[in-house]
Every structure is written in C-alpha cells, then in structure tokens.
C-alpha cells in the first residue's frame, strides 16, 4: 500500500503534469465515493452515501446552493458511474494534451475550472428561469466533468480547428467536426432524461469558445483562477531558512509551482516571420504532431500578433 501511495505522489508531483493531475483528482474522488457506497451498504446505512453525494453535487434550487456554494466546483470532479468517469477522462486527455502543449498548464486548469463554472451557471439559470425546466418536479442535481471536459475540447477545436485525430474504424477526422458533433448532440439532448448534464455541456462549450477567442485577442479570462492557484501553492511552499545571506536573499525569486508549470506558455517570445515560416513548413512536411512544445506555443503567440 505504501508503495502505491509513493507511486501516486511521484506521478502527481511531476513537473508540467497538470493534465494527469486533473485526471488523478477526478479518479481519487470517484474511488472515495465508491468506497463510501460499499461501506454504507455493508453497514446498512445507505444514508451516508447519499449525504456524501449531496455535499459534492450541485443543486438547482437557489436556497440549497447558498447552503453549499462549494458545489459549483466540486460537481465537476464527482462521478459514481465507472463508464461516466472513463469517458470523461478519455475525452479530457484527448483534447487537454493539445491545450497543455500549445497554451501551457496554467491555461489548461483555467479552462477546465472556467468551463465547470460556466456549465454550472447554465444549468442553474435554465432550471430557474426556463419554464420547461422550471416545471419539472424535483429538478435534477448536477455532477460529472462533462461540461469542463467539453470546454477543454471546444477550446482545442477553436485553437486548432484543422488538427486531425485518427479514429478507429473511421480514419482521420478534424477535431472541429468531432467537437461540433458533441455540441449539437448535447443541444438536442438538453430536453431529454439527462437535461442537467447536457445544459452543463452547452455552458462549458460556450466558455471554451469565448476563452480561446479572448485569449487570441490578448485577454485572459482565466486570470482569477491563476490568482487562486498561486495563493494555494504559496500556502504549501516551504519557508526559507531564518538566516539568509544577502546574496541568497537577492536570489530568492523562485516562482510558485503553478507559475513554473505555466512559464513555458507565458514566457515564449513572439517569433519573427522566419521562425513562423519554418514552423509552418514543418507542419506541411510532418503535421502538427511533429512540433515541439516550444514551437506550438510560438505558433500560438504568432496568431495573437496577427
């Protein structure tokens, strides 16, 4: 057991590993929920399991949400169906690696969190203001990373619409068509049995599109998320020794872990036209997949300049 925990800590603490960290957080919460379910059934106290879910799922009623405001975020890390979390994590991995490669770790987290908040907001507004949903007796609670994952997917498709995935039995498909299919499917299913989840998909998709478009125009709507991330990482940063020499003091400008993880996205200089042409030639010869992380981020910076 200790070896398993050591492996988990080692994997979680690797630098530039944000995508895996998001997947691990979702997985740990899922396993914890399943553990509570098993213990509750064995002890014949299933109310403990329902209470645990109630603390994590987002309700649609304003009063209930005011009593549990943290659920606007925790719902997007909570699953109890193995196939639900498996699909969401595969979807997040496919598209999240593109966002992480081109925009860096900080922006991947920012897009995931903003997508989760946007999905929750869409669900909340629809169930309280749209008559069709408002008239449904009891409404629905919201859980699952689908809205946040679709936000990341739409963000990747907005950033790299012609990037190609090779799908089993289908062949090469541009990601803009894959993502469009899921957005349209969510729209039509928003009046079905899983209306709440599909409303979150639509909200997350809208956030993903707006996030990238604003970023391409020089505005980053994820800044509040980065600010919270930096505060959180500073709380757990080791404090320097009490006795510090003048030379050491001047050198202590170590950024936070999240800042370091995202530094490759924020400190890559704007490339000149020769660099851009060389990158485009490489894409023409070998495709997007052949680019290095730095080349991908330079290409994005060039798109902001144009």
Automatic annotation (TrEMBL):
Thylakoid in keyword set: no
Keywords from the UniProt entry: Membrane, Transmembrane, Transmembrane helix
A GO CC annotation given for this chain: membrane
Recorded GO MF terms: serine-type endopeptidase activity
Region (Disordered): 246-269
Subcellular localization(s) per the UniProt record: Membrane
All residue ranges annotated as the DUF6576 domain in the record: 272-305
Residue ranges annotated for the Peptidase S54 rhomboid domain, each copy included: 68-215
Membrane-protein topology: Multi-pass membrane protein
Transmembrane segments: 19-39, 108-129, 141-163, 175-192, 198-215
Ranges annotated as biased composition (Polar residues): 246-256
Name this protein carries in UniProt: Rhomboid family protein
